Amino acid sequence: MRSLVPDYLADVLADVASDTSGELAGYIPELASADPDRLAAAFATVDGEVYGAGDIDAAFTIQSVSKPFAYALALSDRGFPAVLDKVGVEPSGEAFNEISLETGTGRPRNPMINAGAITVHSLAGADDPEPGARVERIVSGLSAFAGRPLRIDEAMCASEMDNAHRNLAIAHMLRSHGILTEDPRAVVDGYIRQCSVLVTPRDLAVMAGTLANGGVNPVTAERVVDAAVVRQVLSVMATCGMYDAAGDWATQVGIPAKSGVSGGLIGALPGQLGIATFSPRLDEHGNSARGVSLFERFTTDMGLHVM
Ligand code: DON
């Protein structure tokens, strides 16, 4: 099996390689200049084997794939009631950057959309941290999920912050409802730093593998978060991870997943493996076009569907 997996992955990549459908994310200038042809897939099993094919060591910014991991860190740091009080768990059925706040309370509908993720960012780490300490907590937490020290791409961060009008508007709405209690600009700055952490497809496979393994990194054997936290995170990934394509994904692929605008996509199959793909062109929902095709292929070939 071990020698067959890389060949299988290389074959599947070759089958989707000619598909150039979709567009690069245009609203972050630094992302719009990415190489659109990069393509990779990696698997990390719960017993710590990592397999990959294509550009598995290509570095790119994690973007929204950070959201389930930041949610896990916030749940660990603050406990469930404090986080659930501020962010719901219902699918919004809307795009990732819609405001999607509950009427009355102003609570973001879930932690996978930007409104929820900006709020979750503000909840990670200690209550009222020193400047920079929250971002450090999140970068070190993401690093524990990946099993190596990760760092922020400062150029990407500056590029996104210069064009963050929509996220700033969302953060000001959250502040007006008392969901955020700090300066909205500072929270968005930290959230964008979180999104600008550099990862490779190999890292994302190990991060997803840590979720599949109940919160223990299968390569380093470090317990990163409790199993109860992972259960919550996987449930929210299953219902909300693919935004307004969540229903299509559930029926056609059927595993908890999360996408990002830089072209990363992860899926976690509890007790078995973490999967990551990378291809920067996005479909109309903001999900990696070839990434979705790869996952459809994996689920068909290996019977992964669990939802
Ligand atoms: O906040 C944003 O818009 C980006 N930093 C992340 C969005 C994202 O990755 C959405 N996923 N498809």
Task: Tell me what the structure shows.
The chain is 45% helix and 10% strand. The chain is of the alpha+beta class. The protein folds into 2 domains: 164 residues, 3-Layer(aba) Sandwich (Beta-lactamase), CATH 3.40.710.10; 132 residues, Beta-lactamase (3-Layer(aba) Sandwich). The strands form 2 sheets. Strands 2-1-7-6-5 form a 5-stranded antiparallel beta sheet. Strand 6 and strand 7 form a beta hairpin. Helix 5 packs across helix 8. The longest helix is centred in the middle third of the chain and has 14 residues. The mean pLDDT is 95. The structure holds 6-diazenyl-5-OXO-L-norleucine. 6-diazenyl-5-OXO-L-norleucine binds next to loops.
Summary, kept brief:
Helix content is 45%, strand content 10%.
Summarize the SSE layout with pairings.
Elements: H1 4-16, H2 29-32, E1 40-45, E2 50-54, E3 60-61, H3 66-78, H4 80-84, H5 114-123, H6 133-146, H7 154-161, H8 165-176, H9 184-195, E4 198-199, H10 201-212, H11 227-240, H12 246-252, E5 257-259, E6 264-269, E7 273-278, H13 289-302
Antiparallel strand pairs: 1-2, 1-7, 3-4, 5-6, 6-7
Helix pairs in contact: 3-5, 3-6, 3-11, 5-8, 5-9, 6-9, 6-10, 7-9, 8-9
The structure holds 6-diazenyl-5-OXO-L-norleucine.
The site of 6-diazenyl-5-OXO-L-norleucine has 12 residues, from loops.
